[in-house]
Structure formats: C-alpha cells, structure tokens
Amino acid sequence: MTSFLSNLNIRQLIIHFIASWFFIYAVHTLITLFDFSFLYNDQVPLMSQLAVQERYNRDLLIINQAGILGLLIAYVISWRISVKYDWFWLNSVIVLVVAFPLAIFDLLGWKFLRSVCMAPGYIFGVNSVLYLVINGVFMLAVGAFLFYRKGIIAFIEKGVKREKKVPTPRVPKANKA
Questions:
Q1: What stretch of H or E contains 60?
Q2: Residue 144: how many CB atoms within 10 A of its CB?
Q3: pLDDT tens-place string over residues 36-59
Q4: Which of 44, 55, 83, 121 has the largest CB neighbor count within 10 A?
Q5: Helix, strand, or coil here: 153?
Q6: Helix (H/G/I), strand (E/B), else coil: 109
Q7: Between the CA of residue 40 and those of 7, 61, 86, 126, what are the distances in Å?
Q8: Nearest by Cα to 141 from 161, 121, 160
Q9: Which contacts qualify for 59-64: CB closer than 8 Å, 24 or more apart?
Q10: Alpha-carbon Rg of the chain, whole angstroms?
Q11: Of 76, 74, 87, 69, which Cα lies nearest the Cα of 19?
C-alpha cells in the first residue's frame, strides 16, 4: 500500500487538474457557437414559448456535455504524457475521477472565475463570435501550456518517486582453455 501511495505525484495531480479545468471550460465556451444565433439573440424568436424553452434547454445540455468532452480530451492528454515520461498512470485517472463529478454538479468554480477567464475577448465586444473564440482558444492555450511546458514537466518530474534499480551482478565469463 505504501508503494502505491508513494507513486502518487501531488504536483502532477494539481497541475493536470488545473489544465483539465481549462480544457473543460474552453470546450464549454467554444461549443456555444453551435447555436450562437439563438443563444445570443436579443430578440425572442418567433416560436412558441414552449419551443423556445425546449431549444434553450437542449442547447444547455449540449454545452454542459461538451465540457465533459473537454475533460475527456484533457484526460487522454494527461495519460499520454504520463506514459511518455514514465509517470504513474493512475495520477491521470485520479484527476478524471475527481474532476468528473465536480464538473457534473458544477462545483469547479466557473461562476467565480468566469470573468477572469473571459477577459481576453472583451476587446471584441461581449457575446460576439470573436469574444467566444478568443476566450476559448485562450483557455485551450493555458491548458496546453500546463500540460506541455518543459519547465512544468521538469517541476512535476521532481515529484516523481522512482524505484531505485538494483544493478544486476556481473557474472564472470568462463575462460576457455
């Protein structure tokens, strides 16, 4: 059991969780372009109130499910990095298992951090296509930076507990006479 716990890397868990958070909300933001004209229309469409509510609920469901897709993409990236650098693969699974219910129940703090994460696109006007694209790409870039930056990988690598390999004893060759 101690061997299992010693393989967990708190640095990787935290950094990959944060990177996954950015991927969740990047995809969440970009998918709102799916039905942009409906979601960001100031005027009520010429539909019955029930049809408008059904379409709005369907769009919100798609947007929320897209956030889960962002988490799955982040998980695959995290897992591949773990395999590439010979880190314990379960660190990536733990990030997925912790982030998934938090994302489902909207407990990741998006309400508090949204204004900060959506700030880069303000120069293009709030709720415009460019606003959403710039902010989504910005969050993807921050997430990718956290996953792939060599300095961050080196920082995570310092927290990896490697088993010391015992050198194999050398067997002397038999002399041929």
A1: helix 49-84
A2: 16
A3: 888 887 776 677 888 888 988 999
A4: 121
A5: helix
A6: coil
A7: 47, 16, 46, 10
A8: 121
A9: 59/34, 59/35, 62/31, 62/34, 62/35, 63/28, 63/31, 63/32, 63/34, 64/28
A10: 23
A11: 74
**130/152 Cα distance (integer angstroms):** 30
**In terms of Cα–Cα distance, which of 54, 58, 79, 74 is closest to 142?**
74
Task: Tell whether the torsion through CA atoms of 11, 15, 20 and 25 is positive or negative.
Answer: positive
pTM of the entire predicted model: 0.84
- Cβ neighbours for 37, distance < 8 A, ≥ 6 positions apart: none
**How far, CA to CA in Å, does 106 sit from each of 7, 53, 57, 129?**
30, 21, 16, 24
Distance of alpha carbon 76 from alpha carbon 120, whole angstroms: 27
- What one-character DSSP code corresponds to residue 35? G
Residue 107 burial (C-beta neighbours within 10 Å; 0-12, 13-18, 19+): exposed
Helix axis angle, 129-148 to 10-30, nearest 10°: 160
Over residues 53-108, the pLDDT tens digits come to 898 899 989 998 999 999 999 999 999 999 999 999 999 999 999 999 999 999 99
